[in-house]
Structures are given as C-alpha cells and as structure tokens.
Design a protein that fits this description.
With about 400 residues, the protein is an alpha+beta fold. It has two domains: about 280 residues, phage-related protein like fold; about 90 residues, Immunoglobulin-like, CATH 2.60.40. The protein contains five helices and 25 strands. α1 crosses α2. The longest helix has about 35 residues. The chain is globular, with a radius of gyration of 27 Å. About 30% of the residues are buried.
Length: about 400
Amino acid sequence: MAINTLAYAEKFTGELDKMYVQEAVTGFLTDNILRAKFVGAKTVIIPDVEMQGLADYDRDTGFIRGAITVAQQPFTMTRDRGRTLEIDNEDIDEIGVSSFAGQVLSEFVREHVVPETDAYTISKLSGVANTQGHLLQGGVVTTPYAAFLDLVSSVRNFVGYSEELVCFVHPSIYKAFQTSTEISKQIVPSDFKKGEINLKVGKIDGVALLPVTADRMYTAYDFLDGSTTGEEDGGFAPQTAAMAIYMLVMPKKAASLVEKSKRMRVFTPDKNLTKDAYKFDYRIYFDVFVKKSKKNSIWAWVAPSITFGTQPADTSKVAGSISGSLTSAATASDSSTVTYQWYQADDATGTNPVMIAGKTSASMVIPTTLTAGLYYYFVKATAGLATVMSSNVATVTVTVS
C-alpha cells in the first residue's frame, strides 16, 4: 500500500505545531501577531498605535482635535533554521512508519526546536531591556522577592495595573521562590492561555511565573550553522561573555513571535533520490519583535559577569622536587563573592574535565607526586547562582632531572 506523503506531512506538521506551542515557554507570544503583514521576503509590518491624551472641552468650540497615529513598523526576519532527518527503510516497516517517525520528530522538536526558539526569544528580549537601561544587577539571590517586586514595579510604572504580566524565571531563582515559606504561600495556581491551550501556572499578585531551564536564560547566544568545522551538531550555545538571566518581567502582549514559515516535508524511500530512507525536512523561519511603544515595558535581573584578572600560567617542574602553585584571581561585576573549583583535563583545550576534590581556593598547590609528562589544569569561578566562568588551561610540564 502506497504512503500518501502529503497526508503524512500535514499530519506531522499539525501535531508538531501543537506540541511546539505547548512545550515552548515563549509560545504564547505567537498570540500577539494577528495584525502582522508580510511585505517582501524578509520584512514583516506590525502596526503600533499612538494616541494623544485628553484635552479641555470648550462649550463654545467643542472638542479639541487630536490624532491617532498608526505607525506601520517594519521588522526584518533573521532566524531561518532547518534540518534534514532520515530514517533508513530497513529500520521501520510501512505499518510502523507513522508511529516511529512521529516519535523521532516529536523528540526533535522537543529537544532542539523548542529550546533554541526560547533561548533566542528570551535573549532578544533581554537585549531590548539592556538597550533601554533596564537591566538590574546585584541583590541577594537566595531571597529574590525584593528583586521580583522591583522588576514588577518598574513595568507597572510604565503600563499600569490592567495589563497581564509574565515573569521568565531562572531555575535557581524559582527554587528560591518555592523553598521560601513566605513567598511560596503567595504563589497561586491560575489559568494561563497559550494559543488554543489553557494551562495552570503559578502567579504572584497576578504575575505569571514561567520557569525556564538554565540553558535558555542567557543574554546572548551563538547559533551553530551545522556545516562549519566544530559546528556540525548545530543548535546553540551561550556566548562567552553572556550573563545568565535571573528574571525577566514584561507584559504578556509586549512582544510578537512571528513565524513566516514552519513546515515539514516528507519523502518516502521511493521519492528520496539519494538513500533508501524516509526523509523529513523541517524548517522554521521566525523572529521576535517588540513594538516601539512597548520597549520601556521590559525589565530584567541578570547575574553578575566574571572577569579573570589573573589566569593560571604554564609552568615546568622536575619530578621529585615539585613545588609552587597555579594562581588565579577573578572578580564579579556586582562585587559579589567569587568561589573557585579546580579541574584536571586531558589536553590544553580542557577536554574531559575532572573535578579535583578539595581544591576550592583561587590558587592550587601543584601535586608533588606527578611523574614525567604533561598535565592540564584550569579553574572555574562562580558568582551568584548562575554565573560560571572557566579560566585558561594551564599546562604543567614535568621532566626527569
């Protein structure tokens, strides 16, 4: 019996779209694009309405004329991502292709598409907050309620109290919320609409708390192209200088997640010209935009950044008479306490790092029992709940006298 490729493509795409909206923490932002219009290949127009305020009414002349300006803001789409997946024909039979392919594609969307979309969206929103001077640093991370109130108050000061707010929360901060008796009692399960799905989320004073995994809560990312050497696996990774985001608060309708294209193509083995395999092409062309009138309504609390003032240096020693230490010194941008942990690796790039028990100071005494050979060490500095920075890898060369 022949497989209807088009029917399978429609089935997979529909089911994956539903799962995407449900799984993506930022999926609700797709609800804000009802009036968006594409003009050209990469440009989307989103209307932004500006109105003048009240004026005095004159009983002789009547109303003072005002204006409503509908600014058609153009935004350029930038995120065009995709991947081809293949399942060998011998790995599945015709009866099981729908079930097996569905499982594979679902995992692909859940493990790769959703995390990358969330990471890009939240990092771009934090970029808007940074441009507006709305990034907060410092504060006591183990008792984050004060910072939460500062963020909410700053947003409310701009949009008032009628708009629904959301708060993206780093898992470390969310844990602090849950373990605080005072704060946990204020978290109330409430309805939260995301597309056609109604969810229950915790809210404090009407602000939806949306916990986000740590890998999606950084201020900047590198998005790997999948073809350059070292980037074959694709996906994304936080940039070296990126700061972890503790919390980001904004109105639910402040940004629009626009998807010009999100589609799946399916090729059966008889249509696949290169392999005897089922072939699935997944492509998503999207971006997130904030209207000019909403840019002041986004605030974020970020973890401190770490700078190494002193890096561990390469050194040479003689077996049997080893002495000395590897030394580092790091500071946090908010002057918070920096802690250290030393590691030994397999090579100068830090491959396969192994934590060295008990080595938790800025300096580490070089083991005196080392025999002839090359040894590689580095230290990780930590500040706050989310910032971890690795030093350079130092090579200790041990020779025989």
